[in-house]
Amino acid sequence: MTGTEPAFPGDAGHEATPGRGARGSGPSGSAASGESAASSGSAASGGAVGQDADDAAAFLSAAALTAFRLNGQLLEVAEELARPAGLTAAWWQVLGAVLAEPLPVAGIARVMGMTRQGVQRIADLLVERGLAEYRPNPAHRRAKLLQPTRAGHDAIALINPGHRRFAERLVARLGEAEARECLRALRRLSAALDDLSS
């Protein structure tokens, strides 16, 4: 999800990303399960090398399962927030990527972690519905830039109040310090995966 305000005061350049704060579930619960599995695997292996490998494997499994669950929770919240504006979560995601500046489809896909084909399909739908438009790209004649129209900006403006209210509830549920640490941890994990993939 993409809003027009930073996630926290002083965190300019990063959009807020609300999620569903479920009691007794979420990242902490999944991580605990992963740690328990790691301990069981380590005891069975009986060796320092095996223990390290089991711990690493359990971490990756727990991290992946937690990320899948979190993604589903965020998409569910995004759909609810975007519905009053006549958008879907995916439309909001693509429009949000070009609020600050126009981008080519490939650039949107890279920023949002989406496939180029998926972004192209949504961009064409947004243009068809008058929520966005293509403009010439001085750097690449064939890769046109996507930018929101006034109607697109108005649609995002309809989402912002609900987005802000949900974000405030989520931060209140976590506490500001823990919310910041959650965000830092997610960014560190994403950066580490980028490093390993490059």
TrEMBL record:
GO terms (BP aspect): response to stress
Domain HTH marR-type: 56-191
TM helices/strands, residue ranges: none
SMART domains the record matches: HTH_MARR
Low complexity biased stretches: 28-46
Residue segments, region Disordered: 1-48
InterPro entries xrefs: HTH_MarR-typ (IPR000835), MarR/SlyA-like (IPR039422), WH-like_DNA-bd_sf (IPR036388), WH_DNA-bd_sf (IPR036390)
MF-aspect GO terms: DNA-binding transcription factor activity
Record's protein name: Winged helix-turn-helix transcriptional regulator
Organism expressing this protein natively: Nonomuraea montanisoli
